[in-house]
Amino acid sequence: MHAPNPDTPHPDTPPALFTWEFAADPYPAYAWLREHAPVRRTELPSGVEAWLVTRYADAREALADPRLSKNPVHHSESAHGKGKIGIPGERSANLMTHLLNIDPPDHTRLRRLVSKAFTPRRVAEFAPRVERLTDDLIDGFCERGSADLIHEFAFPLPIYAICDMLGVPREDQDDFRDWAGMMLRHGKGPRGGVARAVKRMRAYLADLIDRKRGEAETAGGEDRDLISGLIRASDHGEHLTANEAAAMAFILLFAGFETTVNLIGNGTHALLRHPAERARLQDALAAGDDALLTTAIEELLRFDGPVELATWRFATTDLTLGGQHVGQGDPVLVVLAAADRDPRRFAGPDTLDLARRDNPHLGYGHGIHYCLGAPLARLEGRTALAKLLTRLPDLRAAGAPEELRWRGGLIMRGLRELPVEFTPVPPSAAG
User: Residue 146 in 3-state DSSP?
Assistant: First the structure.
């Protein structure tokens, strides 16, 4: 038997979902759902109804079930839900044909093309660039003794990294930083701000693809960046359309930066709230032991991961999930944050244990839609946390935890800001 969580809602009272209080700490509500309604039909803030899946076993089953399509055309209320599911603006910007919206065989074909950029060798080759970016960002505030780790560190690091990998010229990367900022701020206002950023990104990518196609015609050898690789593949019979190339580049930018922002932000926040575990990690790093850093990243992904709910799925036929009848066309949302704290799978699920070994978390999904950029995100998370903890050893939160604000949104989980203080150090302290 598992001891009840004193913060869990009363057994007879369904929890309030999607409130500001829920956003600050959704885990008690998810504990209630796991125990009393593990597969529950729920009205979302948008008015769309979807099934929420909260137990680990059901979540793994749903994530790998081919009867749950990623393609929104299978949504039974597509007219009602138009513009209320997926990424705002992607439909009007003609960016729907990306990995989060398609099924095999198109998914298999496109994933094979882009997966070449995320092999262990390619990611390892990118490590020095990530280290330089990390040190440069810390240099920007380390003499000041205070910083907002979201906007000054966790946010720009993955933006510049993924821009480099895609092949966005350095002189254009600040534009991407501005557009990405509009996306991160969408919790403050209407979704239209996100849609405008998406359209600007789409126009830029179309132009960049045209420019790189011209460059590719006059240059030979190995592709220097991912967009060039996509262009070369499409020009050599891989049937990658211009829209598919733009959509692929877009989703790698969109999905590749916010997940890492939240991994770094949520991970740092968790370490600051668990000083014994944070000291344990710092001691290991000081001793040159990277093994704990490896398990720590996985535990932080499980404990308070960057993706709260997996992206949309739609039943292509009637099916049974967790004992519930899911009708054809019904949307299904797998709650990764709930599954990863399921006591049926994880011992002491609400305890942060950086040395946890048995940790098959779902932080980056499961099955054929497992996050393609997970190796790069792990590299960025490892580098960011190791540099922060070694270069700013007395890093501490500035202000009370209850003063922190979490971004509104359905899929991602992340802080709006994370103010910290530390003893000022000179930039030359970089390793």
Answer: strand
Q: Where are the domains of the chain?
A: 20-429
The pairing of beta strand 313-315 with beta strand 331-334: antiparallel
Burial class from Cβ neighbours inside 10 Å (0-12, 13-18, 19+) for residue 260 reads: buried
Residue that the structure tokens 């057994």 belong to: 11
What pLDDT score was predicted for residue 84? 67
Q: Which two tokens stand for residue 267?
A: 């991970």
Cα–Cα distance measured from residue 404 to residue 63, given in angstroms and rounded to the nearest whole number: 32
With 0-12 / 13-18 / 19 or more C-beta atoms within 10 angstroms meaning exposed / middle / buried, residue 169 is exposed
> Phi then psi for 310, rounded to 5 degrees?
-65, 155
Task: Give strand pairing partners of 69.
Answer: 314
Q: Give start and end residues of each alpha helix (H) in 274-350.
A: 275-286, 291-304, 336-339
Task: Give the tens place of pLDDT for each residue, 386-428.
Answer: 999 999 999 999 988 888 999 877 889 999 999 999 999 999 6
From residue 78, how far is each of 44, 71, 306, 330 by CA, in Å?
Answer: 15, 11, 28, 10
Average pLDDT over the chain reads: 86
Integer Cα distance of 23 and 412 in angstroms = 11
Please state whether 302 falls in left (phi above 0), alpha (psi between -120 and 50) or beta. Answer: alpha
- State residue 214 phi and psi, 5-degree precision: -65, -40
Query: Which residue in the block uniquely carries the two structure tokens 């054929």?
Result: 368
Q: In the CATH hierarchy, which top-level class contains the domain 20-429?
A: mainly alpha
299-321 pLDDT per residue, tens: 999 999 999 999 999 999 999 99
Identify which has the larger pLDDT, 87 or 381.
Answer: 381
Report which of 11, 70, 16, 30 is spatially closest to residue 304, judged by C-alpha positions.
Answer: 30
Q: Quick count: other Cβ atoms within 10 Å of Cβ 296?
A: 30
